[in-house]
Amino acid sequence: MRWFCLAVVTLFAVLILVFIFQNSQSVEVFFLRSNFNMRLAFLIAAAYVLGAATGGGLLALLRWSYKGAGLQPTAAR
Fold first, then answer.
1. What are the structural domain ranges in the chain?
2. 3-state SS string over 3-36?
3. Secondary structure class of 28 (helix, strand, coil)
4. How does pLDDT run across 2-26, given as a tens digit for each residue?
5. To bridge 41 with a disulfide, which of 13, 20, 71, 77 should be the other Cys (CB 3.0-4.6 Å)?
6. What is the DSSP letter of 70?
7. What is the pTM of this model?
8. pLDDT at 30 over 80
């Protein structure tokens, strides 16, 4: 099983590298009245990381509020 996980991680890393090399063109980004140029692959990676962070934060907040409200699953009687 360890070799399978290693193979999946290696394959994923190779696919990311291929993606970066294929999307090396520069794009202009406009944000909060400023503009700058960056590589398309880095822009997509930044959007993914920000989306994962906000989604993970929302999930953690929902779990915390659920536990804080004292809601417990009801046991079968």
1. 2-68
2. HHHHHHHHHHHHHHHHHHHHCCCEEEEEECCEEE
3. strand
4. 888 889 889 988 888 888 788 778 8
5. 20
6. T
7. 0.53
8. yes
pLDDT score for 75:
59
Residue 44 in tokens: 């997509």
Q: What is the pLDDT of residues 60-76, one digit of tens each?
A: 777 777 776 666 656 55
In angstroms, the CA 20 to CA 14 distance is 10
What is the separation of C-alpha 58 from the centre of its chain, rounded to a whole number of angstroms?
A: 13
**Helix (H) or strand (E) run with residue 50 in it:** helix 40-68
Confidence of residue 1 (pLDDT cuts 50, 70, 90): confident
Token reading at 58: 């929302």
Cβ contact 35:27 at 8 Å: no
DSSP E strand boundaries for 1-77: 26-31, 34-39
Give Cα separations from 51 to 10, 61, 64, 74 (angstroms): 24, 15, 20, 34
Read off the tokens for 17: 């590298």
